[in-house]
Amino acid sequence: MKRLVLMSAVLFFTGLVSAQKYSTKTGNVTFEASVPLFEDVYAKDDNNVVILNADNGEMASVSVVKNFHFKTKLMEEHFNESYAETAKYPKATFKGKIANFDKTKLSASPQKYTVQGTLNFHGVDKAVTSAATVYAKDGKIYMQGSFMARPVDHNVTIPKMVTKKVAENVKVEYNYVMAKQ
Fold first, then answer.
1. CA gyration radius for the chain?
2. How many C-beta atoms surround the C-beta of residue 61 within 10 A?
3. Which of these, 15, 56, 154, 173, is most buried using a 10 Å CB contact count?
């Protein structure tokens, strides 16, 4: 599975090869679709692969969807089999750009940026805009941000018996520490 992720990432990021790039294989992505009075719907992936072209702010990431882990195994099983259909759609990808990114202006003080791009989840591309904080420290670039995603926009069907237990808007958060390659 790791080879599949690595090969996919290499093919996915070929446009970034000649640029000054920063990357990580241990990016952190979480999502939460909890609603009040019901069990938390929260999952985390600590193996998100990310590459940032520091020359122009273009970036891309890939997650193996099965790498999202939940507090309860049954919830994780339902997510993989019924909602995300990971056998059919094994990965989620993002390809976009940090607007007005200028590596020479990065410092240890976090700066706010807008990230725009396309999220592919469950085989569906959807435009995404995210607020992000970016800073540089000890030769690494740190990036944190979040955005909202809607399962319905990615053709994910929530069964009627649990629709009130799963939020219509899912909060996705990411946290990357990228080293120069």
1. 17
2. 25
3. 154
Predicted local distance difference test score (pLDDT) of residue 113: 97
Q: Cα-Cα-Cα-Cα dihedral of 19, 107, 127, 82, to 10°?
A: 100
Q: How far is CA 85 from CA 50, 76, 77, 108, 131, in A?
A: 23, 11, 10, 41, 29
Mean pLDDT, range 58-87, rounded to an integer:
94
Those residues with Cβ within 8 angstroms of residue 95's Cβ, 6 or more apart along the chain or in another chain: 12, 59, 60, 117, 118
Q: Which residues contact 72 (CB under 8 A, 6 or more apart)?
A: 39
pLDDT, tens digit (0-9, with 9 covering 90-100), for 30-47? 999 888 878 888 999 999
pTM of the model: 0.85
Q: Where does residue 78 rank: exposed (0-12), middle (13-18), buried (19+ CB within 10 A)?
A: middle
Contact indicator for 21, 53 with CB cutoff of 8 Å: yes
